[in-house]
Design goal:
The chain is α/β, with parallel strands linked by helices. It has 18 helices and 20 strands. Helix 6 packs across helix 7, helix 7 packs parallel to helix 8 and helix 8 packs parallel to helix 9. The strands form three sheets. Strands 1, 2, 3, 4, 5, 17, 18, 19 and 20 form a nine-stranded mixed beta sheet that branches. Among the domains are: about 260 residues, Metal-dependent hydrolases (TIM Barrel, Alpha-Beta Barrel); about 120 residues, no CATH class.
């Protein structure tokens, strides 16, 4: 006998009411019939060739018989899957701009739902802004959000954040977490690596995370120190989740840096142990061997005493040729020993103990990914640049001073073996951590924004055979939907929301790379969001049916 969880049963009953029946016979008035596709339903079970009928915003019928519909799609030879869910996205702020509301870069990866506000980023006002924008302009994708610790902490504590909150401040923060959940957030997110979250104690986060438990929400964490305290930081996620009595997710999990190679197995053991005692811990990852990207100049922190250099530094981080006069001015600063000393202190330790990339990741976690001046250095770690007896910072500064075009690096290098080891874990999801991509030939950003899901299915599943297709689809559909509490999405079942992605399993692939990170993916043929075709035969329809999604989990 098949057992249906109460929340799933509730969703199905709602769907049956809408569809007038659920007796096994198809409705006579289907809006759309998808014919002959290879149905990969999101459950992880074997695929089958089936027709899928859509009525309104719901999947109304699944079967082999021919039925009548207002419109049809020929899916012969194509995979019909639930719409992909990106549980860690930075595209939502772009959707507030009317010209970007289609979210084309992720639609062309088959993504129908993005979850914004990770890393502690969204406070209650931002959530209200998102809801208003979706109501006014619509969106090509659905949007769900987290309520964010960093934003709340900053709003309550102002500029004095390098301390614990007072009892009254903590009460206000609790209130804002509840406010975010009442607005429809799916959970509580932190960015403990960044200011001001980095100044918080674990106990503070536990207290705030407890506020989402009555709503059925989850905890999502950008961990505190993924480089210098890799396993310990993930232990904190478990402690917070367990202390708050909620499920937890380790965001964009990765073993960063040469010294952490292989330690992903320690975290896998940590997660398995937590799960064995009833603490639901999951993770997400992006399918790349490098984390954030920047120009090499971007890791240099300008101290207040050298504020005049800040604008100059930014001007030298573009994708095109560098301005010779700007380079000369910057180089003159770099060769000045006293100036270099100040830059080294700020870049390696942060200003007043604050955030700095070199402090967070270190030289042995940064790898050069492109350089027109020094192509022989592509793939080299910054820790490998220094000659014997040379300070690594001096080596970096010398490289900047000698370059006529930007040297681009990845901030956090990961071994390919560790990427694959994590990818096959049954509780691990795929997510982008990506920003908005516009399909251009621009040279700034990380390729994951335009390529994550296509790369996962094209490179790792089809070309490398790391996972069967059915399991891969589960990791980007039903697994995130169930974890987030979006209980009527993530699978192709009668009564479920008609978020569907139809793609060519033989051609789907990413086209974005380190040099051209904005290029759109290929192989996605049709995409439906809430029963509406937003991508048809590879072309945008211009329709914006995306909705703001709130929890449907029953606490």
């Amino acid at each position: 006998m098949i057992r249906v969880r109460p929340e799933k049963l509730a969703a199905l009953l709602v769907g049956c009411t809408v569809l007038i029946g659920c007796e096994g016979s198809p409705p006579s008035n289907l809006d759309l019939l998808i014919l002959g596709g290879i149905l990969v339903d999101g459950s992880g079970e074997a695929s089958s060739q089936m027709n899928v009928g859509v009525l309104g915003d719901r999947i109304a019928w699944i079967g082999e018989d021919g039925v009548q519909a207002t419109d049809t799609l020929d899916a012969l030879g194509l995979v019909v899957a639930p719409g992909f869910i990106d549980v860690h996205s930075h595209t939502v702020p772009a959707l507030l701009e009317r010209q970007r509301r289609m979210n084309e870069g992720v639609l062309r990866q088959g993504v129908t739902t993005v979850v914004g506000g990770p890393d502690g980023g969204f406070g209650p006002e931002m959530i209200r802004t998102v809801i208003e924008a979706l109501g006014n302009n619509g969106s090509g994708t659905n949007v769900a959000v987290y309520i964010g610790h960093n934003s709340i902490r900053e709003s309550v504590m102002g500029g004095d954040q390098q301390r614990a909150p007072t009892p009254s401040e903590l009460d206000i923060m609790r209130t804002q977490v509840r406010e975010g959940m009442e607005l429809g957030a799916v959970g509580f997110s932190t960015g403990l690596m960044y200011e001001p979250g980095m100044f918080s104690e674990t106990s503070e986060v536990v207290e705030l995370a407890r506020e989402v438990a009555p709503f059925g929400g989850i905890y999502d964490s950008h961990v505190r120190n993924p480089v210098h305290a890799f396993v310990e930081s993930d232990q904190e996620v478990v402690a917070i989740s367990e202390g708050a009595g909620i499920s937890g997710k380790i965001g964009h999990l990765k073993a960063v840096g040469l010294h952490n190679e292989g330690h992903i197995n320690d975290v896998i053991e940590l997660v398995e142990n937590a799960r064995s005692r009833g603490v639901e811990i999951v993770s997400d990852q992006y399918p790349y061997d490098g984390a954030a990207t920047t120009s090499l100049i971007g890791i240099i922190v300008i101290p207040p005493s050298m504020a005049d250099l800040a604008g100059l530094s930014l001007s030298l981080q573009g994708s095109g040729p560098l301005n010779p006069e700007a380079v000369a001015r910057f180089r003159s600063t770099l060769v000045n020993p006293s100036h270099r000393t100040q830059l080294k202190e700020a870049s390696e330790n942060g200003i007043d103990g604050g955030f700095a990339w070199l402090k967070a990741t270190g030289y042995n976690s940064m790898r050069i990914v492109s350089s027109s001046d020094y192509p022989e250095l592509v793939g080299v770690y910054l820790s490998e640049l220094a000659e014997e007896g040379q300070d690594p910072f001096d080596a970096v500064m010398d490289l900047i001073a000698g370059a006529s075009a930007p040297v681009n690096i990845t901030l956090g290098a990961i071994t390919e073996e560790d990427v694959r080891t994590l990818m096959v874990q049954p509780w691990n999801m795929i997510a982008s951590d990506g920003a908005y991509a516009d399909g251009s030939e621009a040279g700034r950003g990380h390729p994951r924004g335009a390529g994550t899901f296509a790369r996962f299915l094209g490179h790792y599943v089809r070309e490398e055979g790391v996972l069967p297709l059915e399991e891969a689809i589960r990791k980007i559909t039903s697994l995130p939907a169930d974890f987030l509490g979006l209980t009527d999405r993530g699978q192709i079942e009668e009564g479920y929301a008609a978020d569907l992605t139809i793609f060519n399993a033989e051609t789907i692939i990413d086209r974005s790379d380190w040099d051209y990170p904005q290029r759109f993916a290929e192989g996605i043929v049709h995409v439906l969001v809430n029963g509406v075709l937003v991508l048809r035969d590879g072309s945008l329809t211009g329709r914006t049916p995306g909705a703001f999604l709130s929890l449907t989990r029953i606490p």
